[in-house]
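USER: Note each token:
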Amino acid sequence: MPKQTSSSAFQPYIPATAVLPEMTARALLMGVVLGMIFGASSLYLVLKVGLTVSASIPVAVIAITLFRLTNKLGGKDATILENSITQTAGSAGESLAFGLGVTMPAILILGFDLEISRVMLVGCLGGLLGILLMIPMRRTMIVEKHLELKYPEGTACAEVLKAAATDSSREAAGEKNNPHAQDDASKRAAIIFGGFAVGLLYKITNVALKGWKDTPEVTFGAPLKGGSIGAEVSPELLGVGYIIGPRIASVMAAGGVMSYLLLIPMIKFFGDALSVPLSPGNKLISEMSAHDVRSAYILYIGAGAVAAGGLISLVRAMPTIWRSLSAGLSGLSQNKNSQQIIPRTDQDIPMKWVIIGALAIIAIITFATPLHMNLLGALLILVFGFLFATVSSRLTGEIGSSSNPISGMTVATLLFTCLIFLLMGWTGGQYYVTALSVGAIVCIASSNAGTTSQDLKTGYIVGSTPRLQQYAILAGALSSALILGPILLKLNDAGTVYVPAAQVAPDLTTDASILTDTAQLQGPQAEQDHGTYKVWHKNNTVGGPAGKYLVNDAGQVVYLVDPGINGAYNKRPDGSEVKKYDAPKAVLMSYIIKGILDRQLPWTLVLFGVMIALVLEMAGIPSLAFAVGVYLPLSSSAPLFVGGMIRWLVDKRNSRLPQYKDLNEEEKQAAGDRSAGVLLSSGYIAGGALAGIVIAFTAGILTDFDKKIGSWATLNNPFFEGANADGLSLLPYAIIIALLYWIGKEKKAT
């Protein structure tokens, strides 16, 4: 068992001196195409439920499978470094989709149109900026903190790539003369791909086929009225919890416990007697469920805690970040000969190109008309982009991409940006768009910075060239951004309902002579009406609801345009049903922008969150992971806690084995990170994440099938619906928990 006590002693799987095909055309092309596919499916998921799944591992698994198939058909199999490039390029689509999906639909809620130029600019600029901001931090986050920041999905992805390494890759890794290397690789592959099969089948059966309830929950009555405990019984979150370990998993779960077993019951206790709604809620607290209370109040508290925890984390990390930046900037003065002595596995894109690229992006942001941007807004993007790219990278290293609260960072960005705008006296519709553009670009930059960190961690473990990985993810981000904008608009158009004026605003008129924009009907209703109308954005409720209207040349309102994203009408005039997208995170973003610029934001709740973070820091507890737990649903952090506890039990049991006797705690931790339990958890993550694509397909394409399965399960499946569904749904979950514990246990060395 090799000992590994520090990041400086770490040796990648493929050494720096090895020469293998890496950034080949086929590897890059496959990564770009897979990134587009995963980006499209992730965009659908984020519009429906506000969540996505990390794409790195599914892309790696698909790439390995496709290259193996090519090899069987007479082509050449891919090296481990080629597979690393493919998954790096393919991971960008998901992070871009999340950023676009949680921000840009808010433009509709604020009363503006989704313009293709605006959406594509935000996607391209935010994606590229996040990658560039991460490059100077690679040595700090990935190299210097290798043992501290696990990057669970990145580590899992590296194990997947190593398990599927070809003969040439294993030879380059020095395993050719090891008689047990082939057997060890086969065992690793069997565990990972076995876990992958279990995770994939489990989640498809659970969610797509409605086999059992996916989030069992218990709600309490008095004296803890409003309190609840729930857990998403998913294999990927269980695997992430196992990889990150018991400490961080417990801290995150503690934040969720505070929200669901303290804050929500307190709000219910003090608010049940109120006879009027308490702002920012819009209904009586006595009529609210625990989820309603969370949406109305806890999210603001969590956002404040995440913002404060992020700032504190950034301040704490500034010395190491500064050292990393200084090391990168020193490369500007080095000549080409000195660059050649840098090992292949430590080569980044030269710092001068990073600086030029970042400045060029800021210049484009400043003068891009669709963004309604100004110099101050561009500077805020640079400042908050660097801040939250750093926070996102570190959080991703601690808790993984799946639990990284990017939306919380976006909320914090909007809070500060809108407050600055308010102090400047910048209020009104135009500044809604400016503030949202700032938040959207920072959101995408933060999301992509976290994804880039995961990819670079994978590359660091397997021995990729960082510079080539950075080129690959830049190409993947740009390609995905170009297609996600049109897809977002098409999804909105497909669900848009043109409501006849007689139904919502009879006899409503306006002065058509002052209207300059024109539009035609889009989507299915365009077949019945090919006319061209003038566009009126109505900002008040006099004579009809606020929103976008189409009017004729005489000024008579013909249609209310109800968008497909966050719209209110789910039936067209012909009676046909319409599939709407809720975009829950985008709703929150719009509330914050209007709340601050219209002076209606609940600052008290935000400051409560800040105080929570400060109290934890004063007690010597790092606040960021706890703040994430406050912000996220307890159902998301509870399975991480379960995974962490299984890891604790396995490590405690394994530490009593003879082969661990002479190891110190750090060496035991390193051995645990290479154990069979981590391999199986990697498979769980891969299978569960890939199942998200199947689930998006069945819900978005096979709509009738999905409804029929849901209706049948509701009536006939006691594991899915009924008085005992919550308890019964834990039985399949217990099976994969027991399997994880059993595989994680090591045998006594012989």
